[in-house]
């Protein structure tokens, strides 16, 4: 699962969101590291809908424009949880190997000043 897909599913796990809401949530979740472009987002949403992981929730008119909201499906949530567990497992191995090699873990304060 790509990082963009992982972030989209994670954003939608909290609540149904429209496109711009998903873009904002992905940015927050990634601490500003990932900025989804509109074309990338809607391509991902089309793929996720086709795969049954996301589905349209509702449409609203906002300032004369249609906002389509999306929600994660049960299959999408199961896939997200499986991927999160896989990533956590791999991250744990990386941390163990780093510690075994004598690398000191970076603290949030250290990372912020880097």
Automatic annotation (TrEMBL):
Domain of life: Bacteria
Every Transcription regulator PadR N-terminal domain range: 8-79
Any Pfam family the entry gives: PadR
InterPro entries from the UniProt entry: Metal_resp_DNA-bind_regulator, Tscrpt_reg_PadR_N, WH-like_DNA-bd_sf, WH_DNA-bd_sf
Record-given protein name: PadR family transcriptional regulator
Source taxonomy: Bacteria, Bacillati, Actinomycetota, Actinomycetes, Pseudonocardiales
């Amino acid at each position: 699962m790509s990082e963009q897909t992982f972030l989209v599913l994670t954003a939608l796990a909290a609540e149904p969101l429209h496109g711009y809401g998903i873009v904002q949530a992905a940015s927050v979740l990634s601490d500003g590291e990932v900025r989804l472009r509109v074309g990338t987002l809607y391509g991902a949403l089309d793929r996720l809908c086709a795969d049954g992981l996301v589905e349209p929730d509702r449409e609203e008119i906002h300032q004369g424009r249609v906002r389509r909201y999306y929600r994660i499906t049960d299959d999408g949530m199961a896939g997200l949880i499986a991927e999160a567990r896989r990533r956590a497992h791999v991250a744990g191995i990386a941390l163990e190997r780093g510690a075994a090699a004598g690398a000191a873990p970076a603290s949030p304060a250290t990372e912020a000043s880097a």
